[in-house]
Write a structure and sequence with these properties.
Layout (H helix, E strand, L loop, with lengths): L1 H9 L5 H5 L6 H22 L4 H35 L5 H27 L7 H29 L2 H21 L5 H17 L10 H68 L1 H20 L9 H31 L6 E4 L1 H11 L1 H6 L3 E6 L6 E4 H18 L5 E8 L5 E7 L9 H4 L7 H6 L7 H11 L3 E7 L3 E8 L15 H8 L2
Parallel strand pairs: 2-4
Antiparallel strand pairs: 1-3, 4-5, 5-7, 6-7
Helix pairs in contact: 3-9, 4-5, 4-6, 4-9, 5-6, 6-7, 6-8, 7-8, 7-9, 8-9, 9-11, 10-11, 11-17, 12-14, 14-17
Length: 520
């Protein structure tokens, strides 16, 4: 039992709300996370399997060579068959058959080595031995061509010499184009025929007998040069592809880290909001006691204080408690909005009446600063379907900010009317110092305060505007803040047309028809 209890206590609590919101142990989230981690792990293995950049490129070059040899073997076999059919004009059938079988064996060996290399997963450890195997296969294939060229040159006729030179040029071109990934194979495959040409071709006298061997050597050298150039191009493409793969892997890793950090941030923010939203009773209960007892002590309900300073202390405790309660209420309201637990108690609300009531509540504060409040409201506006408490809180927060930051003798303009889209709006404009453009995102963030608030040491938590924005967005509306330095600030609250309750047309009864119906 103790072991079972400890296991249960270590398990993370999972609620239906957490699963509904995509947090906690949602199977879909876990499956997507595992799939992403597996993809990143595979990509890392591909990159980590190569010890260095040069080794990785060598492996890729050998893979390209093996693939090209596997693709070209059928073509070389067809070329050998066609050459055998032509050479039957000069060589006996038996010797030609031996040569053809030897050529097919060489091609089969090259194909087998290429296929085995493609299946080898430990090719890095044996890269040297594989390169030697490929060179051996190419050398055997070059010996096969050299045997045929030798037999043709021994006949020593213009036709056989020309055909041997043409055959060697064709084989050199094909080998140079298909073996660019490993130029050493070009040397291994062409050296035997070159030796045969040099040894048997010069039969004439003087410089004329050296023309054909020189042409053969120059042609073979040209294709070797072309093979080297192609190898450089292939090497660059392999290097670019390796860099691209590495960059993709880094981007995928960075994206995975970013997604994980964002998920953790959202979970921690949601946990914070839930914690604060559920702490309403625990925080407000002791504060209510502090406010109540300090109110009694400040008012001296049970007699005067022996020491007069106690009355001032009680007043300070009461004002501090009220400020703390206001701060807690704002934090809890913002937390409920962020956590999605702010339930709107919607009803038919008259926006002009709600705004006018809030204006009356703050009239005394405006008079203390000699502020003139001008109102422009359309009295015939229909009601909107909204939470009256939220509408009043939005209005009070915006009016309080306007009164707080407008200098003595300034002016505040309140407008309520129709929007162009058929909704309703609330506009509060002051003649204060304004907000710098670069500070607007700051004042719109939680606990953000502008430089003016710090300079004037105005009391505030920096939560008023975020709460207003959250409450307006819960109604499907839009909150806009427009401000210019030394010109003032204007805030706009736009309620969508869907919130406006259009009045139904009055039902007119047909009195004569009704009388006839009831027989009166």
């Amino acid at each position: 039992m103790p072991a079972l209890t400890s296991c249960v206590s270590e398990m993370n609590p999972v609620t239906a709300e957490m699963i509904e919101r995509g947090r906690g142990t949602d199977p879909k989230v876990i499956a997507e996370r595992r799939k992403m981690q597996l993809h990143i792990h595979v990509t890392r293995d591909k990159l980590a399997s190569n010890v260095g950049e040069s080794a990785s490129q060598d492996i890729e070059m050998l893979k390209l060579f093996a693939k090209s040899r596997m693709d070209v073997v059928p073509g070389i076999a067809l070329l050998a068959f066609a050459v055998a059919g032509i050479v039957m004009l000069w060589l006996p059938l038996q010797s030609l058959l031996y040569w053809f079988v030897f050529q097919i064996i060489a091609l089969a060996l090259s194909y087998a080595f290429s296929l085995a290399y493609a299946k080898d997963r430990e090719n890095f450890a044996t890269i040297g031995s594989w390169r030697n195997k490929f060179l051996l296969a190419e050398c055997i294939q070059g010996v096969a061509w050299a045997l045929l060229v030798t037999q043709l040159l021994i006949i020593d006729t213009p036709a056989t010499n020309a055909f041997a030179l043409m055959l060697m040029t064709s084989v050199a071109a094909m080998s140079g184009m298909t073996s660019s990934a490993m130029p050493m194979s070009v040397f291994a495959g062409l050296m035997p025929p070159i030796i045969a040409v040099i040894a048997l071709m010069p039969r004439g006298t003087g410089y004329g007998g050296l023309v054909q061997p020189a042409m053969a050597v120059l042609a073979l050298g040209y294709f070797v040069f072309v093979s080297h150039r192609l190898q450089a191009t292939t090497h660059n493409s392999v290097a670019f592809r390796a860099e691209k793969d590495a960059l993709i892997a880094e981007l995928e890793q960075a994206k995975a880290n970013s997604d994980e950090a964002r998920r953790r941030s959202e979970e921690s923010n949601l946990a914070k909001s839930r914690f604060l939203a559920t702490m309403s009773h625990e925080l407000r209960t002791p504060l209510n006691a502090i406010l109540g007892f300090s109110e009694v002590m400040k008012s001296e309900l049970f007699g005067a204080h022996v020491v007069p300073a106690y009355k001032e202390y009680a007043s300070d405790v009461h004002s501090s408690g009220q400020h703390l309660l206001m701060l807690i209420n704002e934090i809890l309201d913002l937390s409920r909005v962020e956590a999605g637990r702010y339930d709107l108690k919607e009803e038919a609300v008259s926006l002009p009446n709600a705004v006018d009531d809030c204006r009356h509540l703050l009239t005394l504060r405006a008079k203390n600063k000699s502020l003139s409040v001008i109102t422009h409201m359309e009295e015939t506006l229909p009601r909107i379907w909204a939470d009256e408490r939220a509408v009043r809180q939005v209005t009070l927060n915006l009016l309080s900010n306007a009164i707080k930051f407008t200098p003595t003798g300034g002016q505040i303009t309140i407008k309520v009317g129709w929007t162009a889209a058929g909704g309703q709006y609330l506009s509060i404009k002051d003649t204060g110092p304004g907000i710098p453009e670069n500070e607007i995102p700051v004042v719109m963030s939680s606990f953000g305060r502008g430089s003016l608030a710090h300079k004037t040491a105005e009391e505030g938590t920096g939560l008023g505007l975020p709460i207003v924005k959250g409450l307006v967005e819960l109604h499907g509306g839009t909150f806009l803040l427009k401000s210019k330095l030394r010109e003032g600030t204007e805030v706009l609250v736009l309620f969508p047309p869907e919130r406006v309750m259009n009045a139904l047309p009055q039902i007119e009864e047909d009195k004569p028809a009704a009388k006839r119906r009831f027989g009166t």
